C-alpha cells in the first residue's frame, strides 16, 4: 500500500496562547478526497494553514507521502507537491489572468518551453477560464476569481490539493462547474484532495470520507453516506 499523501499526528496550534487546534491527527490517503466540515471558527482554515506550513504548530508532526519535510514551510510543502487554495481567492487584482498564471509558472521554476502545456492542461480542466483570460482579475466575479485561484494552484501540478471553501460566493451551478472537474482530476492524475466545504450536498457527492471538526477537534470520521441522515448531521454541528 502506498504511503498516505498527508499524515498529521498530534497537531496543536493557536494564536496568542489560545489553542485553536487541539491534538489533531489526520490521514489523507493517496488519491482520496477527504471533506472537512465544521461550524464557523472550528479551526478548519487554521488546520489547512498549519498543514501548508503557513502557521507553526506548537506540537505535532507531519509526513508527506511518508517523508517528514526537513523544514515545514510553504516552499518545502510546494516542493513536496502540496498546494493550498486559500479561502477568499487572493488573486492580484491588477494583473490579467494570463499574467497571474505566468507569475505562478515563473515562481514554480517551470521553463518557458513547458509553460504552454501546463496552461492548456488547466484550461482543459477549467475551460471557462478561456472566456476571461485576458481580463484583469479585479474585474472578475467572485466565482471567476475562484476559478483563477484554483487554476493557479493546478499549474504547479500538485499531488495534494488543500482547498478552503471553494464554494464561497458561488452559485450552486458554478460550484458544480468548479468541483466536478477537480474531482475528475483525482481519477486522471491520482491527486489527493482535502476539501473544506460548507456546501455539504455537493461536497459529499465527490468525497470518499468526511471529518467533522468542533472546537479544534474531530468529533466524527466516516463515509459521507453515514451523514445522509440530516438530523445526525445537525447534531454534529
Ligand atoms: N490570525 C489569527 N489571529 C487570531 N485568531 C485567529 C486568527 N486566525 C483565526 N483565528 C481564530 O481561530 C479560530 C479558528 O478560526 P478558523 O478560521 O481556523 O476557523 P474555520 O473553521 O475555518 O471557520 P470558518 O468556517 O468561519 O472559515 C477562530 O476563533 C478565529 O477567530
UniProtKB/TrEMBL annotation:
Keywords noted in UniProt: Amino-acid transport, ATP-binding, Nucleotide-binding, Transport
SMART domains referenced in this protein's UniProt entry, alphabetically: AAA
Domain ABC transporter, first and last residues per copy: 6-236
Cross-referenced Gene3D superfamilies: P-loop containing nucleotide triphosphate hydrolases
Keyword Nucleotide-binding carried by entry: yes
PROSITE patterns documented for this protein: ABC_TRANSPORTER_1, ABC_TRANSPORTER_2
GO molecular function term, any single one: ATP binding
CDD domains: ABC_TM1139_LivF_branched
Similarity comment: family membership: Belongs to the ABC transporter superfamily.
Name of the protein described by the UniProt record: ABC transporter ATP-binding protein
